[in-house]
Protein: Rhamnulokinase family protein
Organism: Paenibacillus xanthanilyticus
Amino acid sequence: MSNALAFDLGASSGRAILGRLQDGKIVTEELHRFPNDPVQVGERLQWDLLRLYHEIKQGLLKAKHAGVEPASIGIDSWAVDYGLLARDGSLLGNPNHYRDRASEGMMEKLGEELGEAEIFARTGIQFLPFNTIYQLAAQSRAGSPLLESASHLLMIPDLLRYFLTGERYHEFSNATTTQLYNPVSAQWDGALLGHIGVSETLFSPVLKPGAIAGVVQPSVREELGIGPIPVYAIAEHDTASAVVAVPALERSFAYLSCGTWSLLGTEIDRPVMTDEARKLNFTNEGGFGDTYRLLKNIMGLWILQESRRAWEREGKQFTFPELVQLAGEAPAFAAFVDPDDPSFMAPGDMPARIRQYCERTGQEAPQSPGAIVRCILESLAMKYRYVLELTERLSCQRFGGLHMVGGGIHNTLLCQWTADAIGKPVWAGPSEGSAIGNLAVQWIARGDFKDIWEARSVIRESFPVTTYEPGASQAWEAAYEQFSHVTGLDR
Ligand code: LFR
């Protein structure tokens, strides 16, 4: 019986999942779950990184108290954010949150200075205003004293792994999301770093997912009373881990990793660095086993989560199932938004922003929570169709359906509407995609699975997959035209 421990950190919560291989199947157990609340301090929105490290140690203690010594550990998290270390290895300040406004306008500025085509040719990465390159350029141009005194930069999972092992490495899948890593030369891009005035010496070697990245260091062993557990660099970008866990049996497949973000795309062997890919703002993020993730970020359930928080501030409490039920009862196709409108990026009053979007585009604004949630979920389903069709075009493939993984699959209405919108089946599961992909890479690295395809077929056997067949196709087809028109995506 071979076990492994996965720490999976999302933008609002984290968990420690123990995985066991039992009779040819994966059995998982959640040992620890904890909130990850970003903190607004003055102008800045930041991550409470030391608290996250504390929770990782709590997870290790819970394993120990359950009488389990994990055979290995892996950590995955959201991408693009980083921390800076001083010469003596101590953390300089708290890492900024990617939804912080510090780098506002920097993407446009660097685009003008360097040319978007040049940046894309060097990285193959989509233009998102919070990419590491823009965060770092903003810090560098503001003359940040932290950056000036920094000796090392590590991404979030690299940092936590460093605290555990004392060793500094980057990991490939997450490194690509910086928009500073050149997949062709397989190195940090010196020209881009030079332009933003950031020294290459801040960066450490990049490990491929599946590499051993150290063992739990003596001070931590002593503190927790545990052994020298090996720590692997898994596919540390949570989306990369989620893609590992897609229970596809064939090589050509499309996925939607559905959580706070919706990431929709396909797995490919070589980045698609064409002008068309750049103009459509697709990305080629690194994956397991020298693959790339040709995908697009879609704002996702963030808009719903933030709406719920806004209602909560007004004293109206709803659970997610309640909101989904109200959406089901509201009239269909009454109003649409483009979920990726920049006005939905920062935390704030989403219901008001949705109403403003609708007024701006000549639609009747939804008022009740049910109508607003219906508008969000239908708009997401429509955007999934749009991005799925573009993925087919860019990757020259036709998909028979869409694999959906992640916590969003608990929203059965969204799964059904996605199937309706794309006119193809949706195969939903597993919901803990990132944690399962994290475990799977540890098992591949340790030789328990021969390769990713064996891992995927065992995942398929171990976790239920629910099929949603498309229905009401004519109504959805007509509504898609309405959606494309009001969002301007038909232009
Ligand atoms: C999903 C995710 C996305 C990334 C966003 C910000 O959790 O990792 O892939 O674009 O968060 O880091």
